[in-house]
Amino acid sequence: MEISLNCPRCGEEVVVDLEKAHKIKKCPHCGQPWRGSRAADGGISASGGEKPSGTGKVSKAIKTIKTKNVLTAIVVSALVLLLGALVLFNLPWQIGWIFLFGYGVLFLAAEIVYWAIFGKKNVYKRFFIEENDAGDGIRIAGYIGLFTATVPQTIGGCVVNEIGANAFWKHKALRRITLPDSVNTIGYGAFFHCVNLKSIRIPASVTKIGDAAFVSCNKLTEAALPEGLTVIEQRTFLYCRKLKSVTIPDSVTKIGDYAFEGCDQLEFNKIYGSSLKYLGNENNPYMVCMGASYSGINSCRIHERSKIIYSEAFANQDKLQSVTIPKSIIFIGSWAFYKCSRLTGVEIPDSVTAIGKEAFYRCASLKKIVIPRSVVSMESRVFFECGSRFNKLMIYCEAENQPSGWHKYWTEAESSLSSCSVVWGYKGEES
Questions:
Q1: Distance between CA 384 and CA 338 in Å, rounded?
Q2: Same domain, 208 and 242
């Protein structure tokens, strides 16, 4: 399976096989090392280029830490040289020159390695740190420790509020991490391929978790997402093979593509007598409709407390003829009804605000569908090949014209042979 990643330095997209993604060492576009961070979402800074060095409190704190590190390195180097000199003066001259040569080579090699790794980086207790884009806090950009990591709440009197893009990328030794309540952002690919990570507590202060944040965390068994998080980005828990429990808060309004793809042991909430399965929280266990537990269903009614239809929820259910979508649904994910070739009736309630790409791809039996005014976001090819040139799907839109949040080709790809006819300004009766 191929996935697209954004270089944490130049922001360019790189398409790579998922199984080889953790082996990326350099960006093919800019040639820079892949590990590192420039922005919390894994791209470039908001200005479109390098963020200028700050002159505020955070910048001064980081400079102070770097100065202390340099002075410490100089003092340690001086002590090592002094120790070597004392040993040398107490050795017979016959072996003194051998000691001097060996000691000198080792010392020089150690200095070169130290300054090559840490010379241009800001290090605080095994964490690489930097100023965030807003200049109001510190971002964790990397980690050189081993099995456990406890991120401090403040560094140099400045709050730590971000875990940067790729901060713990490919950290195979990491088993447990503790984040402080000051963190509000977990960046793009922050824990990508941390294959031994077993435990992470995501604090209630977190309001954004970047794309692919926990991909291939194969030993992670549970994840409780905090209230206040509004979007679960695409591929967030992709291929977390042992993930069993996920708590999705009521604040979530959208779940990206492949967010739980490959989570083979994920346990769902079910209703006796219903074929559907759900994810949610203690107060609302039916918040996200994940689809049917088996193939071959003819009809279904989504729970009245569900808010989201997950991507691919009913994909390839070629016997599904009707589905009842409650007025609680606000988001229909990508490929939600992919190739439901017998689906004839779908009523989209006016609670829906967004529909993902190819949501009704090749639903060839659809003859008519009404898009309520509430839908402000529509991705590409939502109704791709839902009819034919001579038997077109009629799409009635309550909006007077195409909303700005709709993709240019929201019905199909660019083609003169459209299989859909669109009527704008629909008021409840065909015209």
A1: 10
A2: yes
Q: How far apart are CA 15 and CA 3, in angstroms?
A: 6
Strand-strand pairing, 199-201 and 176-178: parallel
* Cross-strand pairs, 130: 139
DSSP 34-91: SS--SSTTSS--TTSSPPPPP-SHHHHHHHHHHHHHHHHHHHHHHHHHHHHHHHHHTS
Position 40 scores a pLDDT of: 39
- Of the residues 267, 282, 307, which one is the last residue of a structural domain? 267
Neighbours of 268 (CB within 10 A): 15
Q: Which of 226, 242, 267 is the last residue of a domain?
A: 267
Residue with tokens 């949501």: 359
CA 266 – CA 108 distance, rounded (Å): 52
At 409 the three-state DSSP class reads coil
**What dihedral angle (degrees, nearest 10) is formed by the CA atoms of 228, 240, 357, 269?**
-70
Q: What is the DSSP letter of 30?
A: T
Q: Check if the beta carbon of residue 271 is closer than 8 Å to that of residue 248.
A: no
Q: Is residue 138 part of a domain?
A: yes
Contact status, residue 267 vs residue 290, Cβ threshold 8 Å: no
Confidence band, pLDDT 50/70/90 cuts, at residue 416: very low
Residues 217 and 163 in one domain: yes
Q: Where are the alpha helices (DSSP H) in 270-337?
A: none
Residues sharing a CB contact under 8 Å with residue 323, sequence separation 6 or more, in sequence order: 299, 300, 301, 302, 314, 337, 343, 346
d(CA 21, CA 45) in angstroms, rounded, equals 23
Q: Which two tokens stand for residue 129?
A: 């740190």
Q: Among the listed ranges 100-114, 148-162, 332-346, which one has the minimum average pLDDT value?
A: 100-114
Sign of CA dihedral 422, 423, 428, 429: negative
Q: Two tokens at 130?
A: 């930097």
User: Which pLDDT tens digit goes with each residue over 347-366?
Assistant: 999 999 999 999 999 898 88
* 39 and 111 in a common domain: yes
Contact 64, 156 (CB under 8 A): yes
- pLDDT one-digit tens code per residue, 289-327: 999 988 889 999 999 999 999 999 999 998 999 999 999
Separation CA 355–CA 291 (nearest Å): 16
CA–CA dist 50, 43 (Å, integer): 11
Q: Name the residue type at position 149.
A: A
What per-residue confidence (pLDDT) applies to 206? 93
Same domain for 280 and 383, yes or no, is yes
Closest by CA position to 341, among listed 307, 324, 316, 323 = 316
**Confidence band, pLDDT 50/70/90 cuts, at residue 58:** confident
